[in-house]
Amino acid sequence: MNGIIADKSNIEIESHVYIGPEPYIFGKGGLSIGRNVIIGPRVTIHTTNHNFDSNDCLPYDQVSYIRPVTIGKNVWIASNVLICPGVTLEEGCVVGMGAVVTKSFQKGSIIGGNPAEIIRMRDLETYDVLEREGKHYLVLKEAGKIRNTYV
Prior knowledge:
about 150 residues, UDP N-Acetylglucosamine Acyltransferase, domain 1, six-stranded mixed beta sheet, 2 helices, about 30% strand
């Protein structure tokens, strides 16, 4: 797999997580990924940022700010997404292609854009039923119970 996953000791990944090709994931500040998460290709996740507001040098100094990223269970992050330091995506969020996620979002948010904003919300009643029944894509696929259909 091409790409970079750096500072792996600061990254916690639960079960049934898929990370697509060419990820750029920097875990120095701490990264937590919940179960049943799908991360598309070419996703970038940063957990630190430089101090640009410095009196010592330009464009930034030697100080890096640590801001952990948390990705809750059942989150789908589409391709080419950038997640900034300090973001929390609560369970069930969907992040559209190419989004730049600069802030945190609540359970069931469907987000996109630059900067990412809420497009709409999931039907949380349906979400909660599927969660209780254990109907998780990667689990069902592993068990041979999923057959992709293209419409």
